[in-house]
Amino acid sequence: MEQFHWNRRMVLPKRTSELIALMAISTTLFLFLHTRDLNTKLKEMEVKIQPYSMVSGNQLISGDSGPAEVSGMRATMKLLESTGEMQSLQPTRLNNTRKAQTEVVFFNRVPKVGSQTLMELIRRLSSKNDFGFHQDRVQRVETIRLSLEDQAELAALVSSYEPPGVYIKHVCFTNVSNFGLPEPIYINLVRDPVERVISWYYYVRAPWYYVERKIAFPDIPLPDPKWLKKDFETCVLTDDRECRYVRGEIREGIGDHRRQSMFFCGHHHDCLPFDTRGALERAKMAVERHYAVVGVLEEMNTTLTVLEKYVPRFFEGASDIYWNEISRYTPINKNAFKPPVSEEVKNIVRRNFTREIEFYEFCKQRLHKQYLALKL
């Protein structure tokens, strides 16, 4: 009997410590959730008590958007007021969704602009809003510029999906109506072009990128370790071929991932030369004539609001799902292996990205106009 009590006394402390540890974890989790909810409410209260001049662009519970989004919106508003355009802004005139001949969204996503996050948002919205979700399969070699025959095949594929539906693929703008097929609803995202090219540089060197590629295509050879270790700053400062951005230069092959404007310019030969006026104007024209919404990664509040209002059949409730589910709990494609890059090096690159920066600012101003026209 004494032996039984002795054994019992020996077991109790262990169970007690486990119980205490479990209670500590539970308490920590409760405090984390409670603090997060309080933080969200505080941000919402800040928006309610601040005047419009301090908060615009639907700035609510953003972790990614902030003063830059607000100041950008304010600058657009002042420009429109100075030219007299502010009063004449109308959502119907700025919304190409009305031109669509079928309820199919074509998201020809640009890499490294937050497109995978938007794709996940659309996937979740497909269940909520009852529409089909279709994405291109993983490619061994991802070709973004297509021959005329391949464009026709892609146009036929987009048109084959039963509406309402969404089709997603990394590819240059493809004018489906040119092949006698109904015009879809085009959407896309852009990002600061220099930040994007840095992100792309480290993305293709990330270890998990090659793990995913090896799983999908086991016979793909591994890259040279020296290439993997090469950092962006050294690449720029040593005038490395990979980080040389020469105006008018043409890089044939599968496509030029240095430029996001190419995804809007299309498949024409004039779109090939780097940072040229002709390619820029073609890209702008495609956005103005065909795209319902071109969002901006750095201004996600504004982007989500415009998507909800201009393409409601597909994006109703987008802000709620993005901020309360994806942004909080599902960080997608975050690259922990991307080191900081100095402003000095960024400025060197910016000098060769003048047309890319102009295109980015053009898309940003168009998004602001679409938002301001709503008069929320």
Automatic annotation (TrEMBL):
Matches recorded under InterPro entries: Heparan_SO4_2-O-STrfase, P-loop_NTPase, Sulfotransferase
Subcellular location: Golgi apparatus membrane
Record Pfam families: Sulfotransfer_2
GO molecular function, one term: sulfotransferase activity
Record keywords, A-Z: Glycoprotein, Golgi apparatus, Membrane, Signal-anchor, Transferase, Transmembrane, Transmembrane helix
Main location: Golgi
Top-level taxon in the UniProt lineage: Eukaryota
Topology of the protein relative to the lipid bilayer: Single-pass type II membrane protein
GO CC annotations, alphabetized: Golgi membrane
Stretch forming the signal peptide: none
PANTHER family: HEPARAN SULFATE 2-O-SULFOTRANSFERASE, HEPARAN SULFATE 2-O-SULFOTRANSFERASE PIPE
Family of this protein: Belongs to the sulfotransferase 3 family.
Protein's UniProt name: Heparan sulfate 2-O-sulfotransferase pipe
